[in-house]
Amino acid sequence: MADYEVSDAEIIQIANSFLLASPPGEFMEVVTDVRGLLPDDSLINDSAPATFREWNTDQMLQVKSPKGNHEVLISKYGEVNNAEYLDPRGNCVIQYDHIRQEVVGSRAIEGELDRSVEDYRSAFDKAADAYLQEHYINGGCTVYGGKQGGNTNITVCISSSKFNPNNFWNGRWRSVWQCTFSGSGKVTLKGNIKLQVHYYEDGNVQLNSNTDKTGSANGGDPTTAATNAIKQIKRIEAEFQAALDHSYNIMGDTTFKALRRTLPITKKKMDWDMRRIKALRLGSQVAR
């Protein structure tokens, strides 16, 4: 069989797939490793800006707002262009460098914010921030608003990360909730929850969960609608986390047990008493 020659385009595609699969908190390390594997590390230079942007926005990275003491998410939902992102609470547009992963400036909002729904967006933002402070102490949230088909649509984005490289694990929670309603009518909730954890001490284990959820809440004035909607989001996310905990609590008796033999081939449990093991080893040597 003739050797298959991998084209530069295929190498770039493979390299980018590795980059986009990077666990939270480890993106730059993966970039360094991928460059080291390439025959020419300049191959990914042209595609790097788009790949970095896709990973950063998908992970909803948290940054400090230049216009307030709060966190802002770099997300697709607030993207003005490839390098600018809405900060509705700070009433500004953040300029972000995807390669360096840092804020490089800001400017005043120039029509990017839908003022017709600002009362509702602001109320949802306040309720979501209170929920965040209670349950996601390492997190950030950004709330966007707009009109969609005559309805009001409020998008609540939550991202919370915890990195512990000294103990070989990192993780990130992301949830996005589309809250749609007309006037003071019932609020329809459509959410997506993503949870990614990487544990890499003496191995390489990842948890990747991607779950869609739905719900509803009673509407009303901005404060009432926001309070009711966030209360339902809190309930749904708490149920999801409880179900996840239950799944892992029983996994040792189900999934993991199915992956290994219950007893050795001898059908007897191994006696791990080191004195007995040394005695057996000595006995086998004497027998020789």
In short:
It holds the Pfam family F-actin_cap_A. With 288 residues, this protein is an alpha+beta fold. 36% of the residues lie in helices and 32% in strands.
SSE inventory with pairings:
Blueprint: H1 8-20, H2 27-37, H3 48-59, E1 61-64, E2 71-74, E3 79-81, E4 84-87, E5 92-97, E6 102-108, H4 118-135, E7 139-148, E8 151-164, E9 169-181, E10 187-199, E11 205-217, H5 222-251, H6 255-259, H7 274-287
Antiparallel strand pairs: 1-2, 3-4, 4-5, 5-6, 7-8, 8-9, 9-10, 10-11
Helix pairs in contact: 1-2, 4-5
Subunit structure: Heterodimer of an alpha and a beta subunit.
Organism: Vannella robusta
Family: Belongs to the F-actin-capping protein alpha subunit family.
Can you walk through the features of this model?
With 288 residues, the protein is an alpha+beta fold. The chain has three domains: 1-42; 47-113, Ribosomal protein S3 C-terminal domain (2-Layer Sandwich); 114-283, Aspartate Aminotransferase, domain 1 (Alpha-Beta Complex). 36% of the residues lie in helices and 32% in strands. The chain contains seven helices and eleven strands. The protein has helices spanning 8-20, 27-37, 48-59, 118-135, 222-251, 255-259, 274-287; strands at residues 61-64, 71-74, 79-81, 84-87, 92-97, 102-108, 139-148, 151-164, 169-181, 187-199, 205-217. The strands form three sheets. It has a five-stranded antiparallel beta sheet. The longest helix has 30 residues, at 222-251. The termini are far apart.
